[in-house]
Amino acid sequence: MAADDYAWFDDHDSGLAESFCVTFVRGLTPREAFDRLGVVPDSEADDSYEEAICASAVAGGTILIEFNGFAGTSDTVAGLLSPGTVTAAVFGNINLDRQFVYSADGQVVTEFEPDFPGSRSGTDPDRLLAHMAALGMPTEDVDAGGWGNPIHTALALAERVTGVRLTPEAIDHATLIGSSSHLVWE
User: Fold this and answer.
1) pLDDT, tens only, 43-82
2) What per-residue confidence (pLDDT) applies to 182?
3) What percent of the chain has pLDDT over 70?
4) Are the C-beta atoms of 155 and 6 separated by less than 8 Å?
5) Using alpha carbons only, what angle is made at residue 32 by residues 41 and 56, rounded to the nearest 5 degrees?
6) How far from each other are the two terminal CA atoms of the chain, in whole angstroms?
7) Which of 39, 50, 25 is nearest to 183 (CA)?
8) Is the pTM of this model over 0.85?
9) Shortest CA distance to 114 belongs to which of 125, 95, 101, 123?
10) Pairing of strands 19-26, 86-93
11) Does the N terminus or the C terminus of the chain have fewer Cβ atoms within 10 A?
12) Cβ contact 77:66 at 8 Å
């Protein structure tokens, strides 16, 4: 996969690209992901209600989608969702706030702003360097821009490190929908 594989994301008719958090979860079903997060599926809900989180089954795991949300990037969600597996969350909004968070076994391993991938933190901030370099993402501090689309590259990185792929179908056909209002940003 390459960053260009996610060029469709900006133009998807859901409007998700305006403000979103997409969490790639390896090896869990949507129900298992919701159970770990304490999210109760709501059969009456749609993806437009406040603090909605949608879960879609995909090859290799689950995609969690938040329209206008960011819970997937929180330490709380990493702690609940990633024990025994790995997750990667990509957040962005129209104000150009952006975040990439890779978690494993309940810990945030690597996190950074996709526009500035040279400034990383976490328990092992350099763990993903080979994957980042393979995607053409800078691994040292550089000025923003000039190296590609940061969000497309972050989505490709999330796929690469989890083995889970975001597709238009995953956005359009959620298996479960519930509220993420109890998940707190830390």
Assistant:
1) 776 655 667 899 999 999 999 999 889 999 999 999 999 9
2) 85
3) 93
4) yes
5) 65
6) 32
7) 39
8) yes
9) 101
10) antiparallel
11) C
12) no
